[in-house]
C-alpha cells in the first residue's frame, strides 16, 4: 500500500495483533498519543532537572537549631527548671513554658529572666553585709540600682566595714562594683581590727576565707590586702592604722604611695624599721596626728623631722617609757602641739613638767594611769593650770603590788616601776 508524501505511516503494535494499523495524520498537527503510553511530562522533568519548580510539600522543613545561649554566671534557683528551657528554645517554646505570665505582656525575653536570676543572687549576697539598718539600706539600693545615683550608693557603702567593701560588695552587680571602686571609700584605712589585729589577716581568718571563696585567692596575706587598699585609694588616703607584724616593704609602700596622709597609727616596729622612721615620716607633709603604739628609740629625730616638715602637726599619742631626751624633743621640736596623750606611760614628774613648760599651746593633756608622779601633785596642777583639759586620774609615783607575787626576789624589793 502506498500513501501520499503528506500522510506518514505509523506502525501501531497495540492493536491486539491484528496487523499494522495506518494512522493518517496531517503534517500540521502533532501525532496522536498512542494507546497504552503515559508520559507525565512535569514529573519526569522535575526528576531530571533539579531546578524545575516544585509544588510545596505537606510537611514543612524543620527549623534550624537554635543558637547556643551564653552561659549564666549565676546558677539558677531550684524552681527554675522552665528557665533552662527558655534559654535553649525558640519563641514558641518560651511562650509554651511560661503559661503563668499575663497575656498583655506578650512573649517574654530571656534577658528579663537573667536579670531576675542575678537579682536573686544579689539579694543573697546582701544578707551578710553590715548591720540590720545597713542591710535594709542595701536592699533598697539593690532594688533601685537602675535609678539610684552613684553618689547615694557610695554614701551607703561608707557605712559598711572595709572588709565587706573589698570582698563582698563588688560581686553583687556592675553598679555596685563601680561604686566600691570609688576612692573616697578608701580614704580611712583602719587595718587594725580591734584586739585581734594579728589574727585578722591569718590564713584561717574569715577575711581570708571570703577572698578564697569569692576570688579564688589561694594564699591570702596582709601585704596583698594592703596593696589592694592602697591601689583603691589612688593616693588619696587620709587616715591609716597599721596592725602589728608589719614588714619593711609595707612601710615603704605606704610612705611612697600614701603621701596625703593626715592621721597615722603605727605599731611597735623592729629595730631596723625604727631607725628608718624619721625618713618615712618626712614624706607625709600633711600629717596632723601621729599615734605610736610603742615609743621608738628614734623619737627625738622623728620629732625633729615632723616639726620641720609638717606645719599642720598638732596631735601626738604615744605609749612607753618617756625619757628626758624624749621630753626635751617634744618641747623643742613640737611647740605647737595642741593635743597630747601619754596614757599608761612611765612618765617621771620632771619629764612631765618639761613637756608642760615647752608646749605652751596645749589644749588637752591626758596622762592617766601613768607611773612616775602622783595624781594629786600640787605643782603639776599649778603648772598645768593654763591647759584647758588635764586628765591625770589613776597616776601614782610608784606602782605597788602584792609581795606574794615576787617570790624569789630580794627582801628589800617592795615596789617596782612598770616600764613598757
UniProtKB/TrEMBL annotation:
Coiled coil, from the record: none
Region (Disordered), start-end ranges: 1-20, 52-78
Source taxon at top rank: Eukaryota
UniProt-listed Gene3D superfamilies: 1.20.1280.50, Ribonuclease Inhibitor (3.80.10.10)
Pfam families, alphabetized: F-box-like (PF12937)
Signal peptide feature range: none
Listed GO MF terms: SCF ubiquitin ligase complex binding
Domain (F-box): residue spans on this chain: 152-192
SUPFAM superfamilies: F-box domain, RNI-like
UniProt protein name: Os12g0609900 protein
Lineage: Eukaryota, Viridiplantae, Streptophyta, Embryophyta, Tracheophyta
